[in-house]
Amino acid sequence: KITGVVFLILILIWLILSLILSPTATVERALTIDAPVSVLFENVNTLKNWEKWSYWHRLEPSQQIVYSGPLSGTGSSYSWNGKKTKQGTITITESVPEEKIVFDLDFKSQGKGIGIWTFRQDIGGIKVTQKFQTESNFASRVFARLFMGKIIGKSFEENLKNLSEVSKKDFIPYTIDITEMDLPRMWVMSKRDTTTFSKLPATKDSIFEILKTSIPDKYQMKDITYPPMIIWHMRMDLSDFVDFEPAFVVADTFKAPKGFKVRRLEGPVIVTTHVGDTKNIEKTYSAFAEWMRMQKIFPTASGWEVYTVNSENEPDPSKWRTEIYFPAAPLEMNKQAE
User: Fold this and answer.
1) Which strands, in side-by-side order, build the sheet including 125-135?
2) Quick one: CA torsion of 180, 184, 190, 193, rounded to 10 degrees?
3) Which of 45, 74, 90, 129 is most enclosed, with most CB atoms within 10 A?
């Protein structure tokens, strides 16, 4: 009898708590990390970077991961399938640079939820907060309050610790020389195409060869000795997609043959130079982007690379020089133009 009474009392308590407690269950952990917010944000905003620090990736490295959507930011997504991690999909629904990232989480038969990461300046570094919210049904509300915080909270603590270690290693001070200039008017003949990363070298070389043979000698402006260039419209690693436009400088009187275009480049630009193999050019782009952010200067159009020293005139990749140009304007000017 006593056992039955105790059981009924426990059931009654469970029911009362289920009525009182909110259906929304929340788990949250935070850690102040001494690393640049740009590095921390990028390690979360680019889902493929989660392989470096996520507790769940480290728990089961052999799980199947399928990425989709853009490389990072809103729309970026991946699905997982593992023995320990089960099945699910995560999708970024909101990405505010260096401030907040919001995810939709679908755990299939185990339910759904929302993940939120925030980044705030704090004493001693950046306060990084990971938060998870889910709606629990009437029967599971008490369980969610008693156990979910401990189970998920532990993984969040591991995530933040791992993110701190990885981000501190990722941050290697890298300085570049940046010049602001007013680019004099120049005309380029170009041919735009799309391809995959594996086919990019061959496609690029093919288009450059076609461009060379399509421009008569009198228009090649040999007195300027301007090297080949590529205007980059889109590069998406995870989707294996490249939208690019190889080009050469031509005279302003040049008429492009069918299938090509002549475009004008001029106006305010910011310029930097990458020295070395173009395989390592991302570190220059990262430093370039950080400088623009700090100066509140933002690109107004697609940027381009000019290969001043390249494989055709220098066999040693460490001596290659690539000039990177971005048409840009202060944030205030961009807002006025909208």
Assistant:
1) 24-33, 125-135, 112-122, 100-106, 86-96, 77-82, 64-68
2) 20
3) 45
User: For residues 327 and 144, what is the distance between their CA atoms, to the nearest angstrom?
Assistant: 52
Contact present, 30 and 220 (Cβ < 8 Å): no
CA geometry: angle at 310 spanning 249 and 233, to 5°?
55
What radius of gyration do the chain's Cα atoms show? 27
Return d(Cα 44, Cα 115) in angstroms, integer: 12
Cα 127 from Cα 303, distance rounded (Å):
33
108 phi-psi bin (left φ>0, alpha ψ -120 to 50, beta other): left
Q: Evaluate whether 176 touches 272 at the Cβ level (below 8 Å).
A: yes
Query: Do the strands 125-135 and 178-190 form a parallel or antiparallel pair, or are they unpaired?
Result: unpaired
- Give the alpha-carbon dihedral of 55, 61, 62, 67, to 10 degrees: 70
Q: Tens digit of pLDDT for each residue in 247-280?
A: 988 888 888 788 788 888 888 899 999 888 887 7
Lookup: tokens for 270: 């910011």
Percent of the chain past pLDDT 70, that is, above it, reads 80
Residue count of the chain, please give it.
338
pLDDT band at 19 (very low <50, low <70, confident <90, very high): very low
b (16+ CB within 10 A) / e for 311-320: eeeeeeeeeb
CA dihedral in degrees (188, 190, 196, 202; nearest 10)?
-100
Closest CA to 248 of 238, 236, 260, 259: 260
Residue 64 near residue 86, CB atoms below 8 Å = no
